[in-house]
TrEMBL record:
Enzyme class: hydrolase
Catalytic reaction annotation: an (S)-2-haloacid + H2O = a (2R)-2-hydroxycarboxylate + a halide anion + H(+)
NCBIfam families (alphabetical): HAD-SF-IA-v1, HAD-SF-IA-v2, HAD_type_II
The protein's Enzyme Commission number: 3.8.1.2
Similarity section: Belongs to the HAD-like hydrolase superfamily. S-2-haloalkanoic acid dehalogenase family.
Keyword Hydrolase: yes
Any Pfam family: HAD_2
InterPro entries linked to this entry: 2-HAD, HAD-like_sf, HAD-SF_hydro_IA, HAD_2, HAD_sf, PGP-like_dom2, S-2-haloacid_dehalogenase
Name the UniProt record assigns to this protein: (S)-2-haloacid dehalogenase
Keywords, sorted A to Z: Hydrolase
Amino acid sequence: MAGAARRVYAERLSAEAMDNFVEAFRGYRLDEVLGAWKPFADVVQNSVERSCKRIGIQFKPEDAQRIYDEIPTWGPHPDVPAGLAKVAKEIPLVILSNSMKNLIMSNVEKLGAPFHTVITAEEVGTYKPLMKGFEYMLDTLGCGPEDITHVSSSFRYDLMPAYDLGIKSKVWVNRGHEPANPFYEYTEIKDIGGLAAAVGLEPVLKRA
C-alpha cells in the first residue's frame, strides 16, 4: 500500500511530505478497519482522504481508486513461492486476509502453492486485528489455537491478536517495516525461505 501511494503521489509531494503521507496512510488504514466492516475500497478511500487532510493537500477520489485498483496486480515477495511450496507438501496452508473476495484470488494464484482454505475479511464481516476473523478461521478448520502456526510480518494486524487468542506457535517474517517485540513469543525468519525450518520440516542452519 505504501508503494502504491508513493507511485500515485510521486509528482506532487516532496520526499519529506511523501514520508509523512505514507506514515499517516498506514495509521489511518488501521484505524479504518477497527470499526464495523465496510468494503475495502472504502477503507482505502477514507484513509487516503484523512491522510491528505493531515498533510494539507487536496483529496481526489480518483487517487484512492488508483491505489485500490493496483491490489489485484500485486505479486508475492520473490522468496514466497518456493518457501510456501516446501511447507505445502507437509502442512495445509490457510490464508486469513484483510481483503475482498473479488480481489484475493488473483493474488493467491501468484503465490505458487496450493491452499487448503482462503478466508477474507468480507466473508467474516470484520478485519484483522479484530479477533472475530481468527475465531472464524479456527471454527472453519475445526481446530484450536494449539493446532496451528500463524505466520505474518505484522504484529499489529496478526501476531498481537494471535498471541491474545492463545496461538503459541507464531512466526514473524522480519521484512523491516515493524520493530521486533519478543514479548509476543515468536520465531523470527528473514523471509519465507526460512519457514520450512521454522516449522520443523528442515534443519535449522546455524552460523559458524
